[in-house]
Amino acid sequence: MPAFRNRRAAALPAKLSRSWLLASAADKANFGPALASEADSVIFDMEDAVPAAGKAAARERVVEALSTGMTAWVRVNGIETDYWADDLAALSKAPGLRGVMLAMTEKPEQVTHTAMRLQAGTPVLALIESAIGIENATDIARAPGTFRLAFGVGDFRRDTGASDSPMALAYARSRLVVASRVGQLPGPIDGPTVGALGEELLEACKVTASMGMTGKLCLLADAADTINKGLSPSDSEIKWAHELLDAHAAGAVVGDGSYLPRLARAEKISSLADSYGLWNA
After folding, report:
1. Do residues 174 and 153 lie in contact, with contact meaning Cβ atoms separated by under 8 Å?
2. pLDDT for 224-252, tens place per residue?
3. What cofactor does this protein call for (predicted)?
4. Which of 116, 172, 169, 167 lies closest to 149, judged by CA?
5. Are the C-beta atoms of residues 113 and 144 closer than 8 Å to each other?
6. 21, 90, 146, 249: which has the fewest Cβ within 10 Å?
7. How far is CA 133 from CA 9, 101, 129, 139, 152, in A?
8. Are 73 and 15 in contact (CB under 8 A)?
């Protein structure tokens, strides 16, 4: 079946991707609809979404899809599992591979070893899902091969006993944000808010954005558009940026010490609005 990636999403650099849709590799029927969705990036999931008995078949399914016209990221099994090496050996030959998400990342060398088994330049998303991973986040962010950090909320909560409240997860999210900045990476990707859609998901996105995270995982295609809206500059921010930049272009004079930081923020909002196609939305 031919796969036509959402053109808008296909043209967006992954460093700016807001919504990251996990599509289970347990069934190839999941791939096409995921790629046609509004998700900025799509991840074929060979890890949590596939039981042990189905790992080999899922791997074959993904490689076939990525060799017959589809393009996607792939979540591979953790380096401590029996599947990691086989996952990478198979994916290293797949022409449609955009990058991999490494499950259960806890050490920087795990990312580097993963990158070394793939085609040169293949980006690796480090999915951090444990207390050890959070504490090593800065080293992971600096590791050769790391493209972006992501937060595995469910496994982190199981590991630590933390609740799903923003306060309980604030430390972990902050560590990922600071580590990403230190490692000169794009903003980190927050974990999914399972089952949430509409206003509930928008509220979750407000938490994500307030922490400094710029992407969010999701399990439902219907969640992607809401995440894109929730993690984009608002209409009022775009209007403010447009007005400030117009005034600056017309010769506005620096009035105080906050002017240059505000100008930089306006330029960033303008750039994002252009990338996301929001000026005329």
Report:
1. no
2. 999 999 998 878 788 888 888 888 888 87
3. Mg(2+)
4. 172
5. no
6. 249
7. 30, 14, 6, 10, 10
8. no
